[in-house]
Amino acid sequence: MFQSKISGLGYYVPNNIVTNDDLSKVMDTNDEWIKERTGIEQRRHVEAHDTTTSMGVEAAKVAIERAGIQKEDIDFVIFATLSPDLYFPGPGVMVQKELGLRTVGALDVRNQCSGFLYALSVGDQFIKTGMYKNILIIGSETHSRGLDMSTRGRGVSVIFGDGAGAAILSRSEEEGTGLLSTHLHAQGEHAEELALMAPGMGNRWVSDIVRENDPNDVSYYPHMNGQFVFKNAVVRFSEVINEGLKANNLTVEDIDLLVPHQANLRISQYIQHKFNLTDDQVFNNIQRYGNTTAASIPIALTEAWEQGKIKKGDTIVLAAFGSGFTWASAIIKW
Ligand code: COA
Asked: Which CATH class is domain 179-333?
């Protein structure tokens, strides 16, 4: 069995900064409400030239360079997103084309906020078995083009932002370091508590017809039962972090840095408090980017690394929860 490690990280966010005050000009909301409930101060929205694929490509270029590899060295692409440019094919193949990669495989992962960790776990299995040496993993989202930016959609649209993060997962020769384990869960029973109902082959045609005659049809906008999501998130985050620690005979005292999916600052703070972690042990950047779903962990991990918060030998815990419901964790010895 081989080991895998993250050998390069990168991110890209659009230049367009949208503050809470900017949102209050188009919907009935305000800076105080958004900051108090979510911690978010601003987020990025795509400009005309940005797409989920193009942002993923920019993040990938940085990660490839930092990994010290050439694009020819990439053996496989995994792309996690809930907001692909096209309904099909997914953005994995587009990245393969845009970067001019060999005709390597390209896989799309659809696990929303847990997407990056699901992708990391899939990549880890390919490295462990010896099948691949370098895998490009991307999480990228364009939320802003699909949100209801009227007062009707304010419970959802203030939370989400656009951006992309990327990691190169490489074969490592160092025993006991790198990606120690990943832990994946799902509970489809709650699928519709945080979902986009259309387009989808289930009701796309019906919605098209309804929408023509009914401006109140909201099936094309994401639906979120915010309080239900919040209550489940705090429980599942805790469970899956504990599961990861236990699997590696680690305790909370061993955590050098927790990088949680940036769902809501209140969720991160709840977890920090529950695990008795200091501010330095939990990395948050939701204040500046909002919730970027599959992109949030790789963006946060990259920023933490760039800021020198991750050092060789550190134990890093990644954890996510979101639509599906799906939740996951990864334990890394850097
Ligand atoms: N600005 C101002 N008021 C808003 C608002 C906004 N952006 N969004 C909702 N409100 C209003 C509601 O209409 C409601 O008004 P009412 O009491 O007159 O009916 C009031 O604020 C409370 O709404 P509620 O939905 O109960 O708020 P909340 O305290 O649950 O906070 C969330 C809403 C979405 C911030 C919160 O539930 C949450 O963060 N949930 C988790 C979401 C999450 O993490 N999602 C991603 C998972 S990956």
From this structure: alpha beta
